[in-house]
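INFO  loader      accepted 1 record
INFO  loader      residues=350
INFO  predictor   begin
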Amino acid sequence: MSDIPSRTAETAAGGAVDGDLARARDGDDIAFTRLVEPLRRELHAHCYRMLGSTHDADDALQDALLRAWRGLARFEGRSSLRSWLYTVATRTCLDVIEARGRRALPMDLGPSSDRVVVGDVPLTDVAWLGPYPDAGIADGPAGPDARYEQREAVELAFVAALQHLPGNQRAALLLFEVLGFAAAEIATMMETSTASVNSALQRARSIVAEKIPSPTQQRTLREIGDARLREIVAEYSTALERGDADALVALLTEDVTWSMPPLPHWYRGLEAVTDFAVRVPLTTCGSWRHLPTAANGQAAVACYRWNDDAGAHLGWSINVFGLRGRLIREITSFIGLDHFAAFGLPASLP
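INFO  predictor   done
INFO  writer      dumping tokens
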């Protein structure tokens, strides 16, 4: 008898969905919104994984939902509404990839610099990878057949590796290993054969495996614990605010990297990173303030730089940390105030 209430609730929920679907087909946009709203966050994360940009994900999801609204009459119910919406979103993202290509990090463009490059100029003709706010990421796997946790699948190393895949391979890998769809379902979604999907998966897995370090950041974060994570963020922020090179260096691994898209130059190794840090952020950038945040399932901090004209610290970059053990092995500074709004961060600090 204990199953009766839950089954009754499931039946009622299913009836509500069916009712909204019928009303949406008749042109009720409020009913359509109710249908898609529970799936909006995971669909947005999927678009980010496909495209490597929060802004592109915003546009792609909006376009996909518009396509779904206009094409709802063609949804015959042979698959779930979730599967159909993922089909529309994936095809929308594939159109964007075909038109724009892939996004990059500075290490995709060339070797690291041994010494500081003063006056580095942003490259505006490169489509740069961007950060993703943790508020949009669900915990755990998306389904029982998914190989990756949702947070693992937005880690910078994973999303950067995806950018090296053709669109069809990127889509197949995400739909199969992140979202848990079956190969036959994916073949229907992508209008191809199951054999083609399996072939795309094999090639995609090989390329991604070469580019992703082990262990994942999720495993590292679980091992070091929240207390040490807060210490790392606080100690990094304090070191920059005080101009303390020794305190900063004490937080870094010997093979640390520091990149700053859209600046093309990047640094590898403690000597090169220290040279850059001492010559630029610690001495010539003026006063800093910081707010802790979280991006791509990783530790992060929002950096604010003093601006005399504004009389305030203005948003400068979202710095995302890759950790090894209890130290920082990678700093990716996503420069640009345009990143801050997606994180719910203020544009300035008085």
